[in-house]
Design goal:
Layout: H1 2-10, H2 13-24, H3 46-65, H4 69-82, H5 86-99, H6 102-115, H7 122-137, E1 142-149, E2 154-157, E3 160-164, E4 167-171, E5 174-181, E6 188-194, E7 200-205, H8 232-254, H9 263-287, H10 291-296
Parallel strand pairs: 1-7
Antiparallel strand pairs: 1-4, 2-3, 2-5, 5-6
């Protein structure tokens, strides 16, 4: 490094110019595991959530008995959100059926059987499901459900976004193109065929994307290193030195003193040498990956803002 600095300090005009020029320069799918019922997670003990769900359930039963089926649906949905239980799906189906909404009733009866396949009344509910399926088929449509592992994938049916998994809807019987998209997972595309007389579940397992980066929330953000650049002041200083040398040459040519260098030429040559040396020092620091770049890429903490990943109070 000392040798480099020395060479810059004593370099001639041609060496300085040369240095400035250089500085400018998918796996096979398998059957997804049976989903398990989520436990209540509302920031309160399970016993408290269950007690609140019991109160809501009683209100829902009262609304159903009084024929307020719309209110009963809302209450049973909230009860199931508060304390998930497969039996609530059956109650929601009954309330929808009371409203005359056969498609929604079918959806929740099927969901009940999916969540509780060993239910004691499974055979009876299956018979009721079949009646609702026949009712839909007479309208020229049928119901299908798209499931994915994990949940939350965007569902596109025949090119149109219709919802997120688990998704249930009605469409005409026959073949349909289903596309599932989820962040961090490979895009899945499949052709399914819907029976005109029976509703059907189509379950898919998403495969994680190989290019998905692993993000460490505690890792400090990387700041790209700055490219070495020659400042305007450095170029101006070097230009002034060149101008001084040029003036010295012109003054010497114009001088009638043939015996040696004139005072004017000596003055401009000396000034040009000094200014060029200063420009060389500035050029060295511009091109050096020194402390200025290191400081730019360092991580600074603002103590007024605190830690970004601190625990919430």
């Amino acid at each position: 490094m000392a040798a480099i600095r020395s060479s810059i300090f004593v370099c001639t005009l041609s060496c300085v110019l040369a240095t400035a020029g250089n500085g400018a320069a998918q796996a096979p799918s398998k059957k997804p595991a049976q989903p398990t019922e989520a436990k209540p997670d509302l920031g309160e003990p399970e016993a408290v959530a269950k007690a609140r769900a019991r109160l809501l359930y009683d209100k829902g039963v009262t609304a159903y008995r009084e024929g307020r089926f719309y209110d009963a649906v809302d209450i049973f949905l909230e009860t199931n959100r508060l304390y998930p239980d497969p039996k609530f799906s059956y109650n929601i189906g009954k309330a929808f059926e009371g409203m005359g909404n056969q498609a929604s009733a079918l959806r929740y009866y099927r969901e009940y059987l999916r969540r509780l396949p060993e239910a004691p009344d499974a055979r009876e509910v299956e018979g009721h499901v079949h009646q609702l399926e026949l009712s839909l088929s007479q309208k020229g449509i049928q119901q299908l459900t798209v499931l994915s592992t994990p949940d939350g994938a965007v569902v596109r049916l025949d090119g149109q976004a219709v919802g997120v998994t688990p998704w249930t809807g009605e469409t005409f019987a026959g073949k349909h193109r289903v596309i599932l998209e989820a962040a961090g997972y490979q895009r899945l595309e499949s052709v399914v065929e819907l029976d005109p007389h029976r509703a059907h579940d189509f379950a898919f397992e998403l495969v994680k994307s190989q290019a998905s980066p692993v993000c460490d929330p505690l890792a400090a953000p990387r700041v790209p290193a700055k490219e070495a650049k020659v400042s305007v002041f450095t170029m101006s200083t070097l230009g002034a030195g060149l101008a001084m040398f040029g003036t010295a040459v012109i003054a010497q040519v114009a001088s009638s003193n043939a015996s040696g260098i004139s005072r004017t030429s000596s003055f401009f040559a000396g000034a040009g040498t000094g200014i060029t040396l200063v420009g060389g020092v500035m050029l060295y620091f511009d091109l050096s990956p020194g402390s200025s770049h290191a400081a730019a890429s360092a991580v600074h903490f603002d103590t007024d803002q605190g830690l970004q990943h601190g625990m919430s109070p």
